């Protein structure tokens, strides 16, 4: 089966998933509301007591990190949707059709990425309303948005793979619990330089930290770091991390879809 046919099939499945959100918009809306709540809590309740290495306004530091964290939170929704389709037999009906093994996962990823773009626009508009500003050029800001969606795309494939492999309630719950410490063990809320050395090392090499640091650099916001890989090569690391994740989990997802058992 050629690539054109696979893309056409993925497009049809993507439209199917988007129609579900059109009929039931509460899940993405609650996700956006939750992220805005975190911004208000950390920006206004805790922000006044946090000083950044190198100086700068904490809210301006926080917002790019929240954009990156919102991209990561999509992993849970993707995994849950894929797992539910598998349990209900929807995925098996797709497998009975003469379609590419990557079409169904790719269609799901495309729908989630479209939803993520809307979510990102809403969060940025909310950030502008509470005083966040992007000081970089238009091209730099567009690159920052591209890096955020690039991270989301790679993490979606991780969610798709886990949804195909871990279909039980326990597996879904375990991933939902693990997303939180991974998201918080990053530079989203606090600079890695303010953490214990071993913890700061882990935070610096978190893919969410790389994207957050790159977006701060491109948006012209406070970096929160004065040395290390995030200070010197944030954009490069933010490009490479999602590439590695996608290279690993795209073929694994296609393989898991082919081998899915009833």
Automatic annotation (TrEMBL):
<dbReference type="InterPro" id="IPR000412">
    <property type="entry name" value="ABC_2_transport"/>
</dbReference>
<dbReference type="Pfam" id="PF01061">
    <property type="entry name" value="ABC2_membrane"/>
</dbReference>
<dbReference type="InterPro" id="IPR051784">
    <property type="entry name" value="Nod_factor_ABC_transporter"/>
</dbReference>
<keyword id="KW-1133">Transmembrane helix</keyword>
<dbReference type="GO" id="GO:0043190">
    <property type="term" value="C:ATP-binding cassette (ABC) transporter complex"/>
</dbReference>
<feature type="transmembrane region" description="Helical">
    <location>
        <begin position="117"/>
        <end position="135"/>
    </location>
</feature>
<feature type="transmembrane region" description="Helical">
    <location>
        <begin position="58"/>
        <end position="83"/>
    </location>
</feature>
<dbReference type="InterPro" id="IPR013525">
    <property type="entry name" value="ABC2_TM"/>
</dbReference>
<feature type="transmembrane region" description="Helical">
    <location>
        <begin position="172"/>
        <end position="190"/>
    </location>
</feature>
<protein>
    <recommendedName>
        <fullName>Transport permease protein</fullName>
    </recommendedName>
</protein>
<feature type="transmembrane region" description="Helical">
    <location>
        <begin position="234"/>
        <end position="254"/>
    </location>
</feature>
<feature type="domain" description="ABC transmembrane type-2">
    <location>
        <begin position="26"/>
        <end position="260"/>
    </location>
</feature>
<keyword id="KW-0472">Membrane</keyword>
<keyword id="KW-0046">Antibiotic resistance</keyword>
<dbReference type="InterPro" id="IPR047817">
    <property type="entry name" value="ABC2_TM_bact-type"/>
</dbReference>
<feature type="transmembrane region" description="Helical">
    <location>
        <begin position="26"/>
        <end position="46"/>
    </location>
</feature>
<comment type="similarity">
    <text>Belongs to the ABC-2 integral membrane protein family.</text>
</comment>
<dbReference type="GO" id="GO:0140359">
    <property type="term" value="F:ABC-type transporter activity"/>
</dbReference>
<dbReference type="GO" id="GO:0046677">
    <property type="term" value="P:response to antibiotic"/>
</dbReference>
<feature type="transmembrane region" description="Helical">
    <location>
        <begin position="141"/>
        <end position="165"/>
    </location>
</feature>
<keyword id="KW-0813">Transport</keyword>
<keyword id="KW-0812">Transmembrane</keyword>
<keyword id="KW-1003">Cell membrane</keyword>
């Amino acid at each position: 089966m050629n690539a054109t046919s696979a893309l056409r099939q993925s497009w049809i499945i993507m439209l199917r998933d988007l129609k579900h959100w059109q009929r039931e918009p509460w899940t993405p809306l609650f996700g956006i509301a939750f992220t805005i709540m975190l911004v208000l809590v950390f920006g206004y309740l805790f922000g006044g007591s946090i000083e950044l290495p190198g100086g700068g306004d904490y809210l301006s530091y926080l917002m790019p990190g929240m954009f990156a964290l919102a991209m990561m939170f999509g992993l849970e929704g993707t995994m849950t949707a894929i797992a539910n389709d598998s349990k209900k037999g929807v995925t098996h009906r797709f497998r009975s059709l003469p379609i590419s093994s990557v079409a169904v996962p790719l269609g799901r990823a495309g729908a989630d990425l479209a939803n993520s773009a809307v979510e990102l626009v809403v969060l940025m508009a909310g950030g502008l309303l509470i005083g966040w500003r992007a000081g970089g050029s238009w091209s730099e800001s567009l690159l920052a948005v591209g890096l955020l969606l690039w991270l989301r795309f790679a993490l979606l494939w991780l969610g798709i793979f886990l949804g195909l492999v871990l279909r039980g309630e326990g597996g879904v719950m375990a991933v939902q619990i693990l997303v939180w410490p991974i998201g918080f063990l990053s530079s989203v809320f606090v600079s890695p330089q303010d953490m214990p050395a071993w913890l700061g090392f882990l935070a610096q090499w978190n893919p969410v930290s790389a994207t957050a640091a790159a977006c701060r650099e491109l948006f012209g916001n406070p970096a929160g770091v004065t040395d290390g890989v995030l200070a010197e090569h944030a954009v490069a690391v933010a490009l490479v991390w999602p590439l590695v994740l996608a290279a690993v989990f795209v073929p694994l997802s296609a393989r898991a879809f082919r081998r899915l058992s009833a």
